[in-house]
Task: inverse folding
């Protein structure tokens, strides 16, 4: 299978639209503002993240020990991602690979990837590697629900080929989102795969409501754990 290597100059992304390629209409801007200003959404983020971190603390300790036993390196993987309005933040994940990539050349994970450890393969199938992002939610860098953040190199590439890609940055990124529970998860070796995700991300922003967030959370709990395309 062809490796997908995305290159980036890693230009500063402290402001939205550093290289935007499509205008966002006023109605979309209003929808995005409604999402970001919703106090209920932020309250649910804080409560959900705090409860999750406390309840999962013993599991976190076991996972850290298991990762360190299986392979050398840090148990928590850190990588720079683009967040709200394009600001760069550091995302946290359980390390699933034997390498740590956070630079101008990033090879996407793919089925049968030899860089993925045995424990890492299980975590990626069940999405357990994403749980440390509850810390990002608690600090306000992410939300429980929103567009998934990508590596900086990926953002640089996709922003140049997908119209309105950077409109996703009008709201906080999420641990899960409408695209993920709609089956748009896994490798994006074709531009069309990422374009489909972006379409769902923008749909989420346009149609957001507390009820939609609750629905996505419920779907995540019910079907996300063993998604067939995760790897």
Result:
């Amino acid at each position: 299978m062809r490796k997908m290597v995305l290159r980036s100059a890693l230009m500063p992304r402290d402001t939205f639209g550093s290289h935007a390629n499509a205008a966002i209409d006023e109605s979309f801007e209003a929808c995005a503002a409604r999402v970001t200003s919703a106090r209920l959404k932020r309250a649910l983020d804080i409560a959900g993240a705090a409860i999750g971190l406390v309840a999962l603390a013993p599991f976190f300790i076991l996972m850290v020990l298991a990762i360190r036993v299986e392979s050398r390196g840090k148990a928590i993987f850190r990588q720079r991602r683009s967040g709200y309005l394009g600001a760069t933040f550091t995302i946290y994940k359980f390390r699933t690979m034997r390498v740590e990539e956070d630079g101008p050349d990033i090879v996407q994970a793919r089925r049968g990837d030899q860089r993925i450890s045995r424990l890492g393969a299980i975590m990626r199938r069940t999405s357990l590697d994403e749980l440390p992002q509850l810390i990002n939610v608690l600090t306000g860098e992410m939300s429980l629900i929103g567009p998934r953040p990508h590596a900086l190199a990926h953002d640089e590439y996709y922003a140049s080929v997908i119209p309105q890609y950077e409109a996703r940055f009008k709201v906080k990124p999420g641990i899960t989102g409408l695209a993920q529970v709609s089956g748009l998860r896994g490798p994006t070796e074709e531009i069309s795969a990422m374009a489909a995700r972006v379409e769902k991300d923008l749909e989420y922003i346009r149609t957001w409501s507390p009820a939609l967030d609750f629905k996505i959370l419920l779907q995540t709990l019910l079907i996300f754990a063993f998604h067939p395309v995760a790897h």
About this structure: Strands lie at 5-7, 76-82, 88-94, 105-107, 143-145, 174-176. DSSP finds nine helices and six strands in the chain. The longest strand covers residues 76-82. Residues 5-223 form one domain.
